[in-house]
Specification:
Radius of gyration: 17 Å
Strand content: 25-35%
Order of helices and strands: EHHEEEHEHH
Strand order of the largest sheet: 1-2-3-4-5
Number of helices: 5
Number of strands: 5
Shape: globular
């Protein structure tokens, strides 16, 4: 079986939305997907987008995707690569697609001079955690992610606290 990783294009918006939905179902959060193919096309592939996506294909069939962007570390004085989403269809898992996507991104990070390659994983996702640790990734337990969203974000931005 031949794996091929390619940059996603706007023509992949519906495919990416399907993968996003499948990932959300796996993560028990399907209700949180609020976008549609037009939203993916505009936000991921619009002229001002700073986000990128990859499609992984096996024998010409799409089996997974990754979405990533570059962030910045003030302490390192270097950019980093942040993996927002990594997903491989259940039927294609265990055949190297996830590792191939991650390796592709690691090579990109090294080529771009990034000081870090980071992502988040749900604390209950033991298969993913074990997979990531199998090639040397380690959790950053001293950091807690905070998020403002929805009405709290709108209120805070408006100065209503």
């Amino acid at each position: 079986m031949s794996l091929h990783i390619r940059p996603a294009t706007a023509d992949d918006a519906e495919l990416i939305l399907r993968f996003i939905t499948e990932l959300a179902i796996y993560e028990k959060a399907e209700h949180e997907v609020k976008t549609d193919a037009a939203g993916i096309r505009a936000s991921l592939f619009g002229a001002d987008s700073t986000t990128h996506a990859l499609i992984c294909e096996r024998d010409g069939e799409p089996i997974g995707y990754a979405v990533y962007f570059f962030n910045y570390s003030t302490w390192l004085g270097r950019h980093g690569l942040y993996l927002e989403d990594l997903y491989v269809s259940p039927a294609a898992r265990g055949q190297g697609a996830g590792k191939a996507l991650l390796r592709h991104l690691a090579k990109l990070a090294v080529a771009r001079g990034c000081g870090r390659f980071e992502w988040a994983v749900l604390d209950w996702n033991t298969p993913a955690i074990e997979f990531y640790q199998s090639f040397g990734a380690r959790p950053q337990e001293e950091w807690t992610i905070y998020r403002l969203t929805g009405q709290a974000l709108l209120d805070f931005a408006a100065g209503e606290d």
